[in-house]
Design brief:
binds 4'-deoxy-4'-aminopyridoxal-5'-phosphate; globular; cysteine desulfurase; lyase; 16% strand; 401 residues; alpha/beta; EC 2.8.1.7; 40% helix; four-stranded antiparallel sheet
Length: 401
């Protein structure tokens, strides 16, 4: 593998050819040409769909679709491709765990422990479930470093805790707890752990077996793949315990007016015609990622973020919510509203996000109504970093007038 080269890497992203400064990769990553080509080829050259038709093209497609499941299993070191369920993304995967695994196991008074740093996708499904079953969502607060507070965990985990929901990496701070420690503590009360890997997988694909993760969710679109495709990893024994929460074509082996027999896992969770183009695009992204020096790429984006953070820190009223050396920079500028700044930055051609980042409870914990968030990816360069700093100064000058 050749060492990471930022110029070569950047050249693979056609969306960057028309200038513009893209600093919103935590929302969604841009797509390299290989992913665009794979998706386009699927629509222009493939015939049929998967797991349904007998003709050769459709059979080939089914093999490709199932092979991609194996690629995901390899990426996160799952024991088998059968532990990977295709979903629409992280949100869909977490809702599947909520409805198919946790719901039938919840009794009134049971507890679901959720970190305060969670994206709404890893909070609202548990709130919905709690409201429907009489269970309780318990908050796991953050420490001064903006990470879920490990010192509180032993007392928050009780005999009533059925599930602990936590993200590998926050989409606001870029930080996350030591998963091995979290999981070991959860085990001591018999709780299962749902890890939201939407951000984490981009920076550090986990070894789900070594960490002993029960459920892990991620979205393809943050990992250079298409939108509308993602995956749920579940330990085989847990997936076996789950009944499907969606019924439809191909999730069953027999059906009559008295009932149906579900397919084995994972297919019983994949009712209806799946997103085959998404799977093929994601498969292309994963194949391509294997050719990239990911450690070098990560160092590059972290370095750009650090250098930018140093310059931003010189601005009066700058307040940072960045954990460690994350490539994600969340910040506010005292007495200037984030929406005003982001509007002016957009006028200068800088794409970044401002607001609550689907993490309202986290914003409340930080004591802010929202933040600006510049998320650096390996396709960003020095000019992008400089453009952000200079456009921000320009915006603040205008707002000061
Ligand atoms: N969790 C985190 C930490 C995220 O950043 C996101 C995407 N913003 C999600 C969950 C939800 O992902 P998706 O919208 O792709 O389902």
């Amino acid at each position: 593998m050749t060492p990471f080269n930022p110029v070569t890497f950047r050249s693979q992203f056609p969306a960057l050819h028309d200038a513009g400064v893209y600093l919103d990769s935590a929302a969604t990553a841009l797509k390299p040409q290989v992913v665009i080509d794979a998706t386009q080829q699927f629509y222009s050259l493939s015939a049929g769909t998967v797991h349904r038709s007998q003709f050769a093209e459709a059979q080939k497609l089914t093999a490709r679709y199932e092979q991609a499941r194996g690629q995901v299993a390899d990426l996160i070191h799952a024991a088998s491709p059968l532990e990977i369920v295709w979903t629409r993304g992280t949100t869909d995967a977490i809702n599947l765990v909520a409805n198919s695994w946790l719901r039938p196991r919840l009794q009134p008074g049971d507890e679901i422990l959720v970190s305060r740093a969670e994206h709404h996708a890893n909070l609202v499904p548990w709130l919905m479930l709690a409201a429907q079953t009489g269970a309780r969502v318990v908050e796991w607060p953050l420490n001064a470093q903006l990470l879920p507070d490990m010192t509180l965990l032993p007392t928050l985990l009780t005999a009533k805790t059925r599930l602990l929901a936590v993200s590998q990496m926050s989409n606001v701070t870029g930080g996350g707890p030591d998963l091995a420690q979290v999981i070991a503590l959860a085990r001591s009360v018999g709780a299962k752990v749902m890890v939201d890997g939407a951000q984490g997988i981009v920076h550090n694909a986990p070894d789900v077996q070594q960490l002993d993760i029960d459920f892990y969710a991620f979205s393809g679109h943050k990992l250079y793949g298409p939108m509308g495709i993602g995956a749920l990893y579940g330990k085989a024994a847990l997936l076996e315990e789950m009944q499907p929460s969606q019924g439809g074509g191909k999730m069953l082996t027999n059906v009559s007016f008295t009932g149906f027999t579900p397919q084995p896992v994972p297919w019983r969770f994949e009712a209806g015609t799946p997103n085959v183009a998404g799977v093929i695009g994601l498969s292309a992204a994963l194949e391509w990622l294997q050719t990239i020096d990911l450690a070098g790429a990560e160092r590059w984006s972290q370095q750009l973020a650090s250098q930018t953070a140093e310059q931003l820190a010189q601005i009066a009223g700058y307040r940072s919510f960045r954990c460690g050396n994350s490539s994600l920079l969340s910040f506010t500028i005292d007495s200037v509203h984030h929406s005003d700044i982001v509007t002016l930055l957009a006028e200068s051609g800088i794409a970044l996000r401002a607001g609550q980042h689907c993490a309202q409870p986290l914003m409340a914990a930080l004591g802010v109504s929202g933040t600006l968030r510049a998320s650096f990816a390996p396709y960003n360069n020095q000019q992008d970093a400089e453009a952000l700093v200079s456009a921000l100064h320009h915006a603040l000058d205008i707002l000061a007038d």
